[in-house]
Amino acid sequence: MPDSPRLTTAKSYLSIFRTLDTHQLSSLLSEKFTQTFAPSSISPPGPFDKPGFIAHLTSLTKVMTGFPITILDVIESENSNAVWAHCTAMPEWRVDAMGGGEGEDGQEEEALKKWGFKGEYVFMMWMDASEEKVERCVEMLDSAATLRLMGLMGKAKENIGRK
Question: Where is pLDDT greater, at 92 or 107?
């Protein structure tokens, strides 16, 4: 059986993180879109409206080429017009964000060890009436791993600032 429009929209939304394509993202978000990261105890960014979330993803492109998501499990609710996805994701850092330059033999492999990161997430996505736009997303972050990611993000921004 083919995926419902709701599930297709959710999968399209999650696939955007592979390239951080904000043009494609914009086309999938309703005008009333809101993005909330949780839990609040780790002081995540946001909450965001549509323009704010697009700006947030744009800022990630300064240090990453992508943040590919792997879907582990999905729950779809017709009654709630929602999809919940349990996922993992790993950032793909820009070489200069890791403090390296192009073509430095052996250093890229060493940097990848230092910069390796894998987080676990639950995306709760509610669609608009058309089921073709995401209206609301609550992203449950892997608390311990996200604190490490925040540290890596800070270091990446610092490295980019030195260039």
Answer: 92
Q: Residue 130 is which amino acid? A: S
Q: In DSSP terms, which residues pair with 36 in a beta bridge?
A: 138
User: What percentage of the chain reaches a pLDDT higher than 70?
Assistant: 92
- The CA distance from 156 to 114, in Å, is 12
**Which of 25, 97, 27 lies closest to 57 in space, CA to CA?**
25
CATH code assigned at 150: 3.10.450.50
Q: Which domain holds residue 42?
A: 5-162
Query: Could you give the 3-state DSSP secondary structure of residue 8?
Result: helix
At 141, the pLDDT band (50, 70, 90 cuts) reads: very high
Record the pTM: 0.89
User: Sheet containing 48-49: which strands, arranged edge to edge?
Assistant: 48-49, 29-38, 134-140, 119-127, 82-89, 69-77
Calpha distance 72→50 (Å, rounded): 26
Average pLDDT over residues 86-92: 96
H or E segment and range at residue 78: none
Q: Which run of H or E residues covers position 4?
A: none
Q: How many domains does the chain have?
A: 1
